[in-house]
Design goal:
By secondary structure, the chain is α+β, with helices and mostly antiparallel strands. Helices cover 29% and strands 18% of the residues.
């Protein structure tokens, strides 16, 4: 059987977001932020973008691969079948032993340009999310000014965007050095009639990495990118445990 674990559906909005509205001290003067009760909104997502800032933590929990296409991003694989997150249960609770990507933690907020003409980013939110509501939760504005909660959210989103920029630079470098190749993983498990084959992602080609010129390799060491590459390569060993998690989840419950 074959699967394409790292393809993401194209959309005008980022993953998870159904609608985006700018946060306004006038329109949302009485709005508050309620505690997040679960992460059920990630249940049907098998691959989530991660930034290079997260590689060290992410590689302990998930395989890190690279998506396809010109603007491909690093992805944490949460499952090997499209639309199936193996780290969230039916109640929406995330596996307590696994890292939660920043892309998940920032939802329902994000920074976005309100028009193509501006370079400024504004704090926005998914206005279909039940986390924000009038007269409930921690106030987002106090006397018409952003509350400490809103300032904290804004700071997190700004740090996330900075990490996204660093990730973009990393992807540009590994692409320029032609280090990426199409990935394929074959898993043969006892009891299966045929091996499981997974494609649809990219990974670093170790032979190309080893054959870099000395000055190129030295640059990757000096700018910290070599460590990121090896975090990605080490994380690939988690594909087999992820398959076992998927196999166990598919078994009938006693």
């Amino acid at each position: 059987m074959a699967s394409t674990p790292a393809n993401q559906p194209e959309s005008s909005l980022p993953l998870f977001y159904k609608s985006v509205a700018p946060l306004s001290s006038q329109t949302h003067a009485t709005f508050g932020l309620k505690p997040r009760e679960h992460l059920g909104f990630t249940k049907n997502t098998h691959a989530i973008p991660v930034t290079v800032d997260e590689f060290a933590l992410c590689q302990r929990s998930f395989p890190i691969v690279f998506g396809l296409g010109e603007a491909a991003a690093p992805l944490a694989l949460l499952g090997l079948q499209e639309g199936n997150n193996l780290y969230v249960d039916d109640k929406g609770d995330w596996d307590a032993t696994a890292y939660v990507p920043a892309f998940v933690r920032r939802y329902p907020f994000m920074l976005a340009r309100l028009s193509p003409e501006t370079q400024d980013l504004s704090l926005c939110f998914d206005d279909t999310s039940e986390q924000l509501a009038a007269g409930e939760g921690e106030p987002l504005f106090v006397d018409g000014q952003p509350s400490e909660v809103t300032k904290s959210v804004l700071n997190f989103c700004e740090q996330f965007e900075q990490a996204v920029n660093r990730t973009r630079m990393f992807m540009e470098e590994v692409t320029k050095l032609n280090l990426l190749m199409d990935g394929e993983v074959t898993i043969q498990r006892e009891g299966l009639a045929e091996p499981a084959v997974y494609r649809g992602f990219r990974m670093v080609d170790e032979s190309r990495l080893q054959n870099l010129r000395g000055d190129q390799a030295r640059k990757l060491v000096q700018n910290g990118m070599m460590g990121l590459i090896y975090a990605h390569l080490f994380s690939l060993s988690l594909i087999s445990p992820l398959f076992e998690r998927q196999f166990a989840a598919a078994q009938p419950q006693a």
